[in-house]
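Wed. Picked up where I left off yesterday with Aliphatic sulfonates import ATP-binding protein SsuB. The coffee machine is broken again, so keeping this brief.
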Amino acid sequence: MTAQPSEKLMVFEKVGVTYGTGDDGTEALQPTDLTLSKGDFLALVGPSGCGKSTILKLVSEVLAPTTGNIFFSGRELGATPIRVGMAFQSASLLPWMTVRDNVMLPLKIVPPFKADYRAKRRGEYRERVDALLEKVGLIDFADNNTWELSGGMMQRANLCRALIHEPDLLLLDEPFGALDQFTREELWQTLQELWIETRPTVILVTHDLREAAYLASRICVMSPRPGRIVDDSVIDFVRPRDIDLVFEPDFVALVQRLRNKIVHTPNIRKRNAA
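Structure written out below (C-alpha cells, as returned):
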C-alpha cells in the first residue's frame, strides 16, 4: 500500500509569524507556502526553535499568522470548524478517570458527537471506544486508572483519545519523545496501523529523523530560526512498513540526507549579519 493524497485540505500562502512587535519582535516563521493534502502524513523536522510547533499552533487556530493566509478545504481558516485531534509528549490523561473514560472524553465535548453523548455513551460510544482500545492492545485495561499504566500504554490511550472523534487533522508534537527506543518503535507500528485503517491527515513534529522517515509520507525540513522550509520530500517506502526497514540502505541514506539538510542549512540571520 502507498499513500495517494490528492484533495487539497490545507494551504499556507506566504504565512509568516513574528512574536512581539518593533525592535522586540522575533521572527519565528518566514513567509511560507505549504500544501497539505487529505490523507497526507506530514512530518516536520528541524532544529529546536525553527517553527515546527508554530505551524501546529497555526493549523489548530491557537495562533493567527502575522502575514499571509491559511485556507482549509478551500475556505479561509476559521470560516469552517475543524475537528482536531492532538497528542503530545505528555499523555495528559486525567487521573480521576478510567482509561475508557479518558478515551471517550472527546465524544463528550466535541461537536457533533456531544449532542448525542447522553444517549449513546453506554452503547454506541462505548463500543467505539472499546473497539479502538482492542486495536491497540488496551481493552483489558479499559477500567483501570491511568496511573496504573506504563508510559507506552498511556501513549496508546493518548492516541486513541486523539482519534476517537474522527478528526480532520491529527496533530502530533513529539508524542513518543519521552519513551525508550523499544517502546517508541512499537508505537510507530501502532500509529502506522491506525493511520492505514482510518487515514486521518497527520502533521507530526519530531526531532527523531528515523521516526519521521518510518511514519511519514512527506517530510519537510525546516531551517534554524527564522524558520523556513528548505526541503519537502515524498517518502515512498511501501506500507505497511516493518521495523526492519530502519536498517535498509535506502532508509539509512534518507536519514543521513535529512540530517545533512538540517546541519548544513545556514541561519539566514547570522549569514546576513556576517
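Quick read: Residues 181-198 form the longest helix (18 residues).
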